[in-house]
C-alpha cells in the first residue's frame, strides 16, 4: 500500500479531522489559516489529539507543491495546558495556485484538504 492511499478527505462519526482552510490575498501576500475542528472541536487529550498540520502551496503551472509551514502541537493536557490545532502562515507570491493542508490525528491517521488561492 502506498502512503497516499492512507490519506483521508471526508469526515466520519461525530468528530472533525479534515483541516479547514482559509486564504486571503493582499497584493502579492497570501495569508493562509489552517485548523482542525471548524464545526465540532477535535478531542485534545494525550490519548486522542491532532499531532501536526503541514501547509503546502502549488503555484499555477508548477509541477510540485512547496511546503510553506509545518506545525507540531505538543501540549495535550500536561498541567492543563492544551495546544489548539490552528496555524497561520503568510507567503509572498504573485501567482495564483492551490493551498493544501495535511493533518495527523494520533488515532485516526492522515487527513487532507485543499482550496484555490
UniProtKB/TrEMBL annotation:
Please report the stretch or stretches of sequence annotated as the Desulfoferrodoxin ferrous iron-binding domain.
10-113
Matches recorded under InterPro entries: Desulfoferrodoxin_Fe-bd_dom, Desulfoferrodoxin_Fe-bd_dom_sf, Desulfoferrodoxin_SOR
Q: Does Transferase count among this protein's keywords?
A: no
The superkingdom listed in its UniProt entry is: Bacteria
The UniProt entry, under Pfam families, shows: Desulfoferrodox
Keyword Transport carried by entry: yes
List keywords of the entry alphabetically: Electron transport, Iron, Metal-binding, Transport
Q: Which family does it belong to?
A: Belongs to the desulfoferrodoxin family.
Query: Would you tell me the protein name for this molecule?
Result: Desulfoferrodoxin family protein
What organism, scientifically named, is this protein from? Anaerococcus kampingae
Q: What is the lineage of its organism?
A: Bacteria, Bacillati, Bacillota, Tissierellia, Tissierellales
